[in-house]
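Thought: the user asked what Class A beta-lactamase-related serine hydrolase looks like in 3D. I have the sequence; next I should run the structure tool and report back without guessing.
Action: structure_tool
Action Input:
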Amino acid sequence: MRIPEQTVRLLRALTDSRALSGAALGVVGGAGERATLVLGHAQLVPETRVLTPAHWFDLASLTKPLLTAREVLRATGRGQLDLDDPLSVHLPETGGRALGGRTLRQLLSHSSGVPAGGFLPLHEWGDPATIRARLPLEPWELGEVGAVEYSDLGYLLLGLVLERVTGRPLGDFELDAGLTFFPDPAQAVATEDCPWRGRVMRGEVHDEKAFALGGPAGHAGLFGTLDGVLSQAERLLRGGWLGAAAQAAALRPETGGQTLAFVQAQPGWSGGSLCSPSAYGHTGFTGTGLWVDPERGLAWTLLTNRVHPHRQTSIDIQALRRAVGNTLLAHLG
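Observation:
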């Protein structure tokens, strides 16, 4: 297997012009054959560092499927919870309010009515323990159940559920090779030159809410190498990401184009218009993404640091993701 020249040209033009500081692409087929491409830089300011396959990317919202949804399904298989448990079963402090009646299934599929969360100023609330205690108690304004609203807050609450049922902080969860919460900064890809933190973020989580919680959180905080994320894609494509029943549950359509862990292929989605109807994937704000097309027998990950040195950029990351997916599927699918 080789990366198509059309895909290489797309990415090389952006990294050569430094419109995109760096990009790492990995593709895997149904028999486990792989191809990878690494271009550009891990950092441009205040110093220049060349990107290598060993660098750790801040995966941002890829944390949602690769950690939180996966661990909720594992806990389900251990009998520690059920997907249709109301939140109040595991966070009793939410009892007696509408929030406590929303289920874990609804939170996973972004259909609980819990608001997006946006830029919650959690760093102003206090230390991580104070934030964890306050999150379930806040009088959140909830929407209707069933309407899909992508929600960081919903996954923050799921992270708290996991910590309660396992008795361990997320930072202590065992992770697959190529995934970590705490990368070596010397081997980490730089993200934003953050004005309120006063430095270029490298080896520290870019997401403000996860940062306030100390790094690991239900919605963000995970880091991964190209090989590590591609291995996740391979297990999703070929089996073994979870046990058979749990993996089927993770990928089963739920509502509004969502599964319990991923977004389904639909018009305008990030994987491109050549994907089959059974395809699914997820993206991260920092410029990361993972996609799987079972019908075409292909899975891929595109990891970039598109927020470096600033999130205000001229690059249309969604258009790039679609173009990469389309060129891969046209030549390899």
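Thought: the tool returned a structure. Summarizing for the user.
Final Answer: Structure for Class A beta-lactamase-related serine hydrolase predicted. The chain has two domains: 5-62+177-332, 65-172. Residues 207 and 220 are 7 Å apart (CA to CA).
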